[in-house]
Design brief:
binds magnesium ion; Molybdopterin biosynthesis moea protein, domain 2; Molybdopterin biosynthesis moeA protein, domain 3; binds adenosine monophosphate; alpha/beta; 6-stranded mixed beta sheet; 416 residues; 32% strand; Molybdenum Cofactor Biosythetic Enzyme, Chain A
């Protein structure tokens, strides 16, 4: 028997084929989740001026240093300043300026006395306590100094990062371009979701799963609809779709009479690299490339195509977008009951993951047939059985790919 590509070989080969896309400039408000192409230096101090962290009075420390409840200090209030305003007055010896949080500290002041430590009497304020020299003054540049690198190239922009960039006046950022991903469903049996069911027909659910999966990683899905099992139509559709940055076809990659996808891809100028992988589900799975564009011929079975997407397409798209962390999180799970697995294949078993004393406990979600999307929908993880295993024994441990890391487990472990 000829050597069948293993999952690990297939992942390596696919990832060697793809490289990060060029960079582009985008408005900051589209930046979430994008990967920076530049070190961002601040041209400003943040805050840009010394300001008060409290509502209170701007004072000269030497005036109030000795203030205490039995020996309070009385000062003349010269002005009041709120956030967004600048006082034109100076804090002279024996005086104070009333100040609100965020307002610029007036000239002459070197401490803020919080309002709770004072009593106002007409034009005067009586100070009975202080928090020390310089207290409650946020100096200019306390957060960021002019010239600081605030975010480095390669950074995946998170929510606080977007705010940080806004705070330094960075209205546009340079990030890796997002791939436009062509999605083509193949099959004479396929109908649209709005179409009336008819004997022998199947709704093109893969079109929906795959475009959602592409959008979820932050790439841009572009549907090319349903193409019939006909070599010429397929070739033409693939040629058109290769204008995109990557191509995903589903169906037509096994050894049936109407499985023309591999041939049609070759006709469209795609260099085929492999077309079977030692895995279950998703054993027929074609991969090739045209120039730097990856081309995935995923199996038609709904579970197989999504599992293969997770294993190969998802990391490829992330790499194209400049990410360094390419894979789904993996945890160790305890096996709740015996599960038979296929010899010679790496098997991905759809499992529920329950919390068990802060650990994961995996149990099958039911039939593992590659057409049964329901058991994938019920699963929180894919438990991985190695090629040399034929049984995941109850009580043993195995790695599990977390399908939705926004799960409830961490919260429970942390005592929420
Ligand atoms: P194939 O890989 O073309 O041999 O298809 C394998 C199975 O997946 C068949 O039962 C097809 O009807 C089904 N299938 C193929 N393409 C799709 C699709 N886009 N959506 C849902 N099921 C599909
Ligand atoms: Mg087919």
């Amino acid at each position: 028997m000829t050597h069948m590509t293993t999952v690990n070989e297939a992942v390596d080969l696919v990832l060697d084929t793809v490289s990060p896309l060029p960079c582009e400039g985008i408005p900051l408000d589209e930046g979430l989740g994008r990967v920076l192409c530049e070190d961002v230096r601040s041209a400003r101090n943040v805050p840009s001026f010394a300001n008060s962290a409290m509502d209170g009075f701007a004072v000269r420390w030497s005036d109030v240093a000795g203030a205490s409840p039995p020996a309070p200090v009385s000062l003349e209030v010269r002005d009041a300043v709120g956030a967004g305003r600048v006082s034109r007055k100076r804090v002279l010896p024996g005086t104070a300026i009333r100040i609100m949080t965020g307002a610029p500290v007036p000239a002459g002041a070197d401490a803020i006395v919080r309002v709770e430590y004072t009593e106002t009497a007409g034009e005067r304020v009586v100070v009975s306590r202080t928090d020390g020299q310089g207290s409650h003054i946020r100096p200019a540049g306390e957060d960021i100094r002019r010239g600081d690198v605030v975010l480095e190239r390669g950074r995946v922009l998170g929510i606080p990062d977007v705010g940080l960039l806004a705070s330094i006046g960075k209205a546009n950022v340079r990030v890796r371009r997002r791939p436009v991903v062509a999605i083509i469903a193949t099959g004479d049996e396929l109908i649209g979701v709005e179409d009336r069911p008819a004997p022998g027909k199947v709704v093109n659910s893969n079109g929906y799963t795959l475009s959602s999966a592409v959008a979820e990683v932050g790439a841009v899905p572009k549907s090319f609809g349903i193409v019939r099992d006909d070599r010429e139509s397929l070739t033409q559709a693939f040629r058109d779709a290769l204008a995109c940055d990557a191509l995903i076809a589903s169906g037509g990659v096994s050894v049936g009479d109407y499985d023309y996808v591999k041939d049609a891809l070759a006709d469209a100028g795609v260099r085929m690299r492999f077309w079977r992988v030692a895995q279950r589900p998703g054993h027929p799975m074609a991969f090739g490339s045209k120039g730097s564009k990856p081309v995935f011929g995923l199996p038609g079975n709904p579970v197989s195509s999504l599992v293969s997407f997770i294993l190969y397409v998802r990391p490829s798209l992330l790499k194209m977008m400049g990410h360094e962390s390419l894979f789904m999180p993996v945890v160790r799970a305890r096996i709740a009951h015996d599960m038979k697995t296929a010899p010679g294949l790496k098997e991905f078993v759809r499992c529920r993951l329950d919390e068990d004393n802060g650990r994961f406990l995996a149990s099958s979600t039911g039939t593992q047939s590659s057409g049964v999307l329901r058991s994938l929908s019920l699963a929180q993880g894919l438990v991985v059985a190695r090629e040399d295993q034929t049984l995941l024994r109850k009580g043993s441990h195995a790695p599990a790919i977390l399908l939705d890391p926004r799960g409830r487990w961490l919260q429970r472990e942390m005592g929420f």
